[in-house]
Amino acid sequence: MPDPHDLLDLDGLLSGPEREWRDEVRRFTTERITPHVADWFERAHFPRDLLPELGRRGLLGMHLHGPGCPGRGAVEYGLAAMELEAADSGIRTVVSVQGSLAMTAIDRFGSPEQRERWLPPMAAGELIGCFGLTEPEAGSDPSGMRTRAEPDGDGWVLHGAKRWIGLATVADIAIIWARTPDGIRGFVVPTATPGFSATPIEPKLGLRTSVQADVVLDGVRLTGDALLPGALGLRGPFTCLDEARYGIMWGAMGAARDAWETALAYTGARRQFGTPLAAFQLTQQKLVDMMLEIQKGTLVALRTGRLKDAGRLRHEQISIGKLNNVREAIEVCRTARTLLGGNGMTAEYPPLRHATNLEAVRTYEGTDEIHTLILGRALTGIPAFTAGSS
């Protein structure tokens, strides 16, 4: 039966297998995540035991085709990201760090031996990875990274620091990007290596169901086979970031949809002045405006996914979805909170939790400003990433 809230019939643009996969992931999140997520968020609890289950469900590295990976299409990956973030951004972030960042780096730039060694246990959730690019003094400008890898005989020695590294305190391996005499390179670093340390960043106001950390690399010695041979320069990490940004544009619409559905149900049941809140004109205006942005944002994500599956997706097209969808999702969640009144300030209802999470999502994998400048460069041909450049 058609969804009466899907006014553009976007479901009609999906294939049968795509809808079945979406519904399968939705059932999983409804049963395993949604009933517990408010408590996890309040306690800042990372459900570590969820990783093997995510692996068994085929949700880790789901879009990759390497050894042991599910090999799903881009739209299927997006639909799963939407359902995961409808439960909580922190959970979708865990899947993104593992699959879109750490596993993608190994799959795209690793040797055959690295891919065979690391990808199957990561896809199964038996081994956790993290992705070390951002630094204390190099966030939006990764070209300013100070972490360095010095040649040492047949191996390398790493020195430096990373910040806001998801899963770093629980990871078994870290993909670390560092300067070398040949340029920026990527390394697979077992986190048990002496000199590697990770400290949780606490307390956090968002993404409290996942972990982010400061990482210190103090003379971390690696063998030569730790180097990712296919990555040279910033193209390597940027390729991984694009994979994560793609999932974000879908996920943000999942959070927005959940907030909107909560507001719709609440205003239909809550009565003031003897009538349901949903009967007031101002309430209906808010509900309609929210629905419009969710439908438009989902259409942007779907179009982007079709381009990605066809191998025709361009870098700046990903920026459209990341910039627009996260920005609009935050407004949807904030508006949904207003319709819940004071009750919207409690953990019983998800809109404010979603909005708080999305503030973090808005910042990572490229701020609004960075994606605006990416799009500005695409439109004008003029890069404006440095002060006074234009």
Automatic annotation (TrEMBL):
Residues of the Acyl-CoA oxidase/dehydrogenase middle domain: 130-220
Enzyme class: oxidoreductase
EC number: 1.3.8.6
Gene Ontology BP term (one): fatty-acyl-CoA biosynthetic process
Domain of life: Bacteria
Domain Acyl-CoA dehydrogenase/oxidase N-terminal: 18-126
Swiss-Prot/TrEMBL keywords: FAD, Flavoprotein, Oxidoreductase, Transit peptide
Keyword Aminoacyl-tRNA synthetase: no
One GO MF term: fatty-acyl-CoA binding
Domain (Acyl-CoA dehydrogenase/oxidase C-terminal) ranges: 239-379
InterPro entries hit by this protein: Acyl-CoA_DH_CS, Acyl-CoA_Oxase/DH_mid-dom, Acyl-CoA_Oxase/DH_mid-dom_sf, AcylCo_DH-like_C, AcylCo_DH/oxidase_C, AcylCoA_DH/ox_N, AcylCoA_DH/ox_N_sf, AcylCoA_DH/oxidase_NM_dom_sf
The family this protein is said to belong to: Belongs to the acyl-CoA dehydrogenase family.
Protein name, per record: glutaryl-CoA dehydrogenase (ETF)
Record organism: Pseudonocardia autotrophica
